[in-house]
Amino acid sequence: MLEPWEQRLFNWVIIFVLTTFISLITFFVV
């Protein structure tokens, strides 16, 4: 089980990776 701060950090990392990935895709597609 993750600690609360680890869970928050994990969520932030996922959000950051998703936004970066999406922006890269849109950058190369457009």
UniProtKB/TrEMBL annotation:
The chain crosses the membrane at residues 9-29. It comes from the Eukaryota. Keywords: Membrane, Transmembrane, Transmembrane helix. This is ABC transporter permease. It comes from Caenorhabditis elegans.
